[in-house]
Each structure stands twice: as C-alpha cells, then as structure tokens.
Write a structure and sequence with these properties.
The protein is of the alpha+beta class. It contains 16 helices and 26 strands. Bound molecules: dioxothiomolybdenum(VI) ion. Dioxothiomolybdenum(VI) ion (MOS) binds next to loops. InterPro entries: Ald_Oxase/Xan_DH_a/b (IPR000674), Ald_Oxase/Xan_DH_a/b_sf (IPR036856), Ald_Oxase/xanthine_DH-like (IPR016208), AldOxase/xan_DH_MoCoBD1 (IPR008274), AldOxase/xan_DH_MoCoBD2 (IPR046867), AldOxase/xan_DH_Mopterin-bd_sf (IPR037165).
C-alpha cells in the first residue's frame, strides 16, 4: 500500500457523471430490444376484497393492445417468499392499489389506454386503514425490522420514571412517508432460449435474480439482471418489486420483450412506504440532567399480507446511558399497502421522537441541549454493555456547535422577532448502525498495465464505481484511472444490495481483498500470462465472524429556522451536520450523501407526508405536487447548509475503514428542525410535518 499516492479520501468526480448528464447512461426502461412491448398496470380501486371478474373485451379491442394479463390467464408460479410479489396469482385484494391486471401493447400510449378500458368487478369487505393509539388489533411482534427484538427491558423503567425528580412524558407522531425516487420502478424483460434477461431499476440485482429464480422455477444461471444506472431508491428498490415480476411474466406470456415503468401515481401503493409511527417517550432525570430512565414505545402499522415493523424504538437502545430502560414496538395490521424500508428505517422516525424529548428535558432541567447530550454520553452501548468500536458523538456535538455558532444562542424561546418572523435554533444527535454483508469480487491485472475489478455492486446515484476504483487503486498501489470497474450485472461476482448504508463497506471489503491478493501475487512474479492474472475474494467468513464491538456512526445536526407567524410557514435558513462515520473515502460524494440525507430530513420535518384516506383506503398524495419533496427553493444554498466530518480511525470495521454514510444524514434532522421551531416560537410541536396549518 502506497499511502503517499493513494487517492482514497480524495473528492474525485463520478466516473459516470458525463454519461448521466449527456443521456448516454441507460436506465431500465430505456433498453429497447427489437419488438419490445409496453405494459401498464391496473391497480385495484377497492380497499379490501377480491376480484370477481375482469372484463378485458373493450381493452383488447383497442388498436395496439396485445393482451391483458389477469389472475385468470397468467401462468401460475411458485409463491414468492415476499407476498407482495404474488401479483396476478390470486383474486384477493389486500389493499387499494394492488395490481389486478396488466395491459401489454405495442406502444406506451396504447397500454395506458388499454388499462383505462379494463373493467374490474369486485367483492368488497369492510376496510380499516387508520392507525390509532388504542387500536384493538395492536400487538407486540416477536421482531422488528432488522431482526431487532421487539422488546428490551433493563431494570425497572416505569418505577424509576415515577421516582424521578424531573420527568418528560410526551407523544410524537410521524405520518406515512414515501421514498419517491426520481426514476420510477421500471424493468425491461426478455426471454431468449429459456434465458431471462431483465434490466431492472433496483438497489441490488443479485437479490432480484434470486427472487425471479424462485418465482419462475429457474436455475440462477438462466437469469441475468442488470442495474447499471439507478435513479435513486432510498430503500424502495432494496427488495424486488412487483414490476419486475410483471415484466418477466408479460414477456414470457407474449414471447416478446416487455418494458414496464410504474406510473408515479401507482408507486405509493406498490413499492413500500415508511409506516406511520406513534411514539411515546418518557424520560426520568435527576435535577442535574443525568438520565435515570428511558422509555420509548413505537406503535406502527403493517399490511394484512406481510409483517413489517418499523424499528423506531431501537435507537433508544444505543444513544444515552441510563440505569433503567424499556423499548417496545407494537404493530396493527391494517388494509394498507405493505410498508418497507425508507432511508434509515427505524432511526429516522425514532430519533425524531427521542431527540425531541431530549430537547424537552434540556428545557425542563435548564441545561443547554448540547450539554445534556454530552452529560449522558455512555461509555458502552447501553443495551448490550458492549464497548463501542468508536463513538465520537461528543466531538460531533462540540465541533458542530463551534462551526454553527451555537454559543451565540439566547436559550430563551420566542425572543428573536423581526416583524412577523420568529427565529430559533435547534440541535439533535444522529446515529446509524454499521452494517456489512458478505460479498465476492475479482481483480485482474490486464496486459498493458490496466486493472479490471468486477463486483455486482449497484450505483443508486452515490458514485459506487468511483469509490470502488479508489479502494482498488489504493490496494493495488496504482492510480485509479488504471482501474476499470464493472458493476451492476448479476453475472458479476455476487454482492449485497446498496442499502443499510452497507454497500461501500461490503463491496469495498471484497474489492480490497481481491486487489491486495493480486498485488501480492504480482509482487512475487510480475510477468503476466497473456490473458492477465485474476485474484478472487469472498468475505463471507470474515463478515460472519462478526465483531465483539457495538459499531455505529454518529453525528450532530444544527438548524436555524424562521417561522412566519402570519402564514405559519417554517423555513430552514441554516443547517449544519457534523459526522463521525469512520474513514471518509471520497470527500465529494460523501458530502453529497450527507447533504442529501439532511435535505430529506428537512422534507420529513416540513413538507413530506402521505395520508391514508379512511373512506377509500388509499394514499391521497400520489404525485410530486401533492407529496412535496423539498426543491431547491425550500433549502438554503451552501454554505448556509453544509456537512462536515471528523476523520475517525476505527480499526474494528473492515480493511477500508468506512462506517457507511447513506442514511445517517437524515437521522435526527427533523428533530433539529422541530427543536428550532420550538425555540423560535415557544410552542412545542409534536406531530410532523410542521405545515402552516399546524403552526399558525
Ligand atoms: Mo436503505 S432504506 O437501507 O436503502
């Protein structure tokens, strides 16, 4: 390893940047095999029930319509492990928006017209899509998402709370949220000589191939799934989605290639959402602000066909020391679409509640909210008692406060007034676990002096090719421009998804091992055979050995908001996030990840929400006008918003030393904004988002 020439950490621009801005980068729906057809889905228009009949006659009579697939004529398949993939197999309609037919046509327009002409007759049953705190169907599941136990108890938290001199007991609400990536979920599928090829918009094509193999009863080597470029996913493309099954099914049914790009308005019901969470947090402390008890209960919903429990009480097991603790998840099955992963599942809503409650406790004790967090920073992970591999939350709080100018703050709420506008500042902590999965990779020394790295990583917009080239160059002692990187194809060495902030750590570990092995062999015998020399790596054993350490990234958010007391509008005018996430491998793409997460957190705080319509059972917001993702006009321009980090050396992670940065930027941001709104106005808001109707 030649550290003097290593490009690891340097903010190199993305390798595929030019291809993306010039349109040369092709996305799943842009592959056009000869004879390709277009598909358009027909979503159920009832909230619960079953399909009695489908009348496709009018649709089939339209010019260009080739066929209409339904549960009646689609080939029957092996049921998928994931019930959301069992579309067009049974007549049951578990929620509004469930796909009940698929129209295939010569053009996109014909497919859409056909879908509008399909008449579906339903048997309905009563539905319930409304989560309430006293819902009779609520229960405590065995596990929450991520394999976390639903309940953890330490000591006697309720008893300690009752006896505590200072108490905060508060309820917080987070509505359903949707990922809404810029590129919708899309696939182009074709069958040739029994081999299925699919171009899919996915966060991990190895898993898509496995699901298709199961569903269609094929060996995995008869399937190729590519995801060369992906226009965002945020978790919604982390698992195979119905569109890819439908595209493959329609291609087999018609004998021609088929493209299915889900219409934006169908995404909310078809590709997962962040489930709503109703929180109760109780904190007991002594008058000096030392926590005596921490209780966090998170109530959420799931669908009737799949149990997914947002693990929102999990961060309370990691964040602050206290002798007594109780963290509980409860769930209600409703007639809703199946919830799933959305950027920092668990941590994002959980830390909104916990970090808002910490702000309330700071006020109650008269402590500065930064100091309260520093006071309760634990030596070991509270839930497990394990030592942290590294924990620099205090440093993030201190350095973030310094860069933000926190010390100038007047702690009194509601005192910075300028005409109708009130200004305030808030802080919140961030955390996200270090996750890593087994991965394979190969590295080849090519005649001529170049290298080729192959791994089925996915670039969901993060710059995976670029950073893997940096990791490879570092291990090879070669400039990154000599390293070609092949990713995004299931025929490459198998790799885990781009999710759980684990992609770079997982792929990078395997790439590093393969390149280090290759460099070792080249050092022994620099004469290359004519076909080049290849080294392989498989990190399964090393990853599965696990770690005795509690491994998490940490961070601190600071926000300044301006509240218009005439209109109720809350605007973030300044924000700064400081992070400790291990070694930062590319300063440019890392900053983009942190800032992107922070922007998504501002959306969560101020504008984003999905509403389940009690009468019709569906999500009311089904386009980017109604579901307001922040745009440039909503976000202050850098440097008013900025992210920074400390260089954290942690020897207990992986050979590359990164913790993962895709998700921590969103965690805690909404609480920082909410706490700033409280400081500005003197009013405590406990229900997101802080839209003008609530604030005014
Ligand atoms: Mo992320 S929600 O694990 O893609």
């Amino acid at each position: 390893m030649t550290d003097t020439t290593s490009e690891l950490g340097t903010g190199l621009p993305r390798r595929e940047g030019r291809d993306k801005v010039t349109g040369a980068a092709r996305y799943a729906a842009e592959f056009a095999p000869p004879g390709r057809l277009y598909a358009w889905p027909v979503p159920a228009t009832v909230a619960a029930g079953s399909v009695r009949s489908v009348d496709a006659a009018a649709a089939l009579g339209l010019p260009g319509v080739v066929d209409v697939l339904t549960a009646g004529n689609a080939e029957s398949r092996t049921p998928a492990d994931d019930p959301t993939l069992n579309v067009l197999q049974v007549d049951d309609v578990p929620h509004r928006g469930w796909f009940v037919a698929l129209v295939v046509a010569e053009t996109l327009e014909a497919a859409r017209a056909g879908a509008q002409a399909v008449r579906v007759h339903y048997e309905t049953r009563p539905h319930d899509v409304t989560l309430t705190r006293d819902h009779l169907e609520r229960y405590v599941p065995e596990e929450a998402n991520g394999g976390h136990p639903a309940v953890r108890e330490r000591g006697d938290a309720p008893g300690a709370f009752d006896a505590a001199p200072i108490r905060v007991d508060a309820a917080y609400d987070v509505p359903p949220l949707h990922n809404h990536p810029m590129e919708p979920h899309a696939a182009t599928a074709s069958w040739e000589d029994g081999h299925l090829t699919v171009h899919d918009s996915s966060q991990g094509s190895t898993a898509v191939r496995a699901a298709l193999a199961q569903i269609f009863g094929l060996a995995e080597d008869r399937i190729t799934v590519t995801s060369a470029h992906v226009g965002g996913g945020f978790g919604s493309k982390g698992t195979p989605r119905p569109h890819v099954v439908l595209a493959a099914l329609a291609a087999r049914h018609t004998g021609r290639p088929v493209t299915l790009a889900l219409p934006r308005r169908d995404l909310p019901a078809a590709v997962g959402h962040r489930a709503p969470t109703l929180h109760r947090v109780r904190l007991g402390a002594d008058p000096d602000g030392i926590l005596l008890s921490v209780e966090h209960t998170a109530l959420t919903h799931t669908s009737r066909i799949k149990e997914f429990v947002e693990q929102a009480a999990v961060p309370a097991r990691v964040m602050y020391g206290s002798p007594h603790s109780s963290t509980v998840h409860e769930v209600v099955p409703l007639d809703v679409a199946s919830p799933s992963w959305m950027r920092a599942p668990g941590e994002a809503p959980g830390m909104y509640a916990l970090e808002s409650a910490m702000d309330e406790l700071a006020e109650r004790t008269g402590l500065d909210p930064v100091e309260l967090r520093v006071l309760n920073d634990p030596a070991d992970e509270p839930d497990s008692g394990r030592p942290f591999s590294s924990r620099h939350l205090v440093e993030c709080l201190r350095e973030g406060a310094r860069r933000f100018g926190w010390e100038e703050r007047d702690p009194r709420p509601g005192v910075r007034r300028d005409g109708p506008r009130l200004t305030g500042t808030g802080v919140a902590a961030a955390t996200y676990p270090v996750l890593v999965s087994p991965c394979r990779a190969t590295a080849t020394a090519l005649p001529g002096g170049d290298y080729l790295v192959r791994v089925n990583a996915t670039d969901i917009g993060t710059g995976a090719r670029t950073v893997l080239g940096q990791i490879a160059g570092d291990a090879l002692g070669a400039p990154g421009e000599r390293v070609r990187v092949e990713i995004g194809d299931s025929d490459l060495p198998s790799a885990p998804l781009a999710g759980g902030s684990s992609g770079t750590a997982s792929w990078g570990w395997a790439v590093h091992e393969a390149c280090a092995a290759l460099a070792g062999r080249l050092a022994g015998d620099p004469d290359l055979p004519p076909e080049g020399l290849t080294a392989e790596a498989d990190t399964t054993e090393a990853v599965e050995a696990g770690s005795p350490y509690a491994r998490h990234a940490f961070g601190a958010h600071f926000a300044e908001v301006s509240v218009d007391t005439d209109t109720g509008e809350v605007r973030v005018v300044r924000a700064y996030g400081h992070f400790a996430a291990g070694r930062i491998l590319n300063a440019r793409t890392a900053r983009s990840q942190f800032l992107g997460g922070m922007v998504m957190g501002i959306g969560m705080a101020l504008t984003e929400q999905s509403t389940l319509d009690p009468a019709f059972g569906g999500f009311a917001e089904r386009d980017l006008a109604a579901y307001h993702v922040p745009v440039s006009a909503d976000i202050p321009a850098p440097p008013a918003i900025e992210a920074g980090w400390l260089d954290e050396a942690d020897p207990h992670l992986n050979p590359v030393g990164g913790k993962g940065i895709g998700e921590i930027g969103i965690v805690g941001m909404a609480a920082a904004v909410g706490n700033a709104a409280r400081h500005a106005t003197g009013v405590r808001f406990r229900s997101l988002p802080l839209t003008p109707d609530k604030v005014r």
